[in-house]
Amino acid sequence: YYPALAQIFTADLLSSVTNVLVYSSLEFLSLVMALALLKRMLGFSTLRQLAFVLETQAPMVQLRLSTLFMYVM
Question: How many Å apart are CA 28 and CA 22, to the nearest integer?
Fold first, then answer.
């Protein structure tokens, strides 16, 4: 389906996918730890923070999500 991926061996593809999954897991873990630290040290509610951002920045979030979906597809 993708001509650029035609010459990639299965082991190389598996290695690349594994690297991406490990990196994204570490990013997610650091986000969770930062949110826990904000909650513990400053008393910020993460759901209120998310609601505030989505309420005030809705057009920008929609634009970025639609752009991301265009790149992925």
Answer: 10
CA separation for the pair 52, 44 (Å, rounded)? 12
pLDDT tens-place string over residues 34-53: 989 988 998 988 888 889 98
Token pair listed for 43: 């008393």
Q: How many domains does the chain have?
A: 2
Q: Tokens standing for 52?
A: 């505030």
Percentage of the chain beyond pLDDT 90 is 55
Residues in the chain: 73
Model pLDDT, residue 1: 67
My answer on whether 52 and 25 are in the same domain is: no
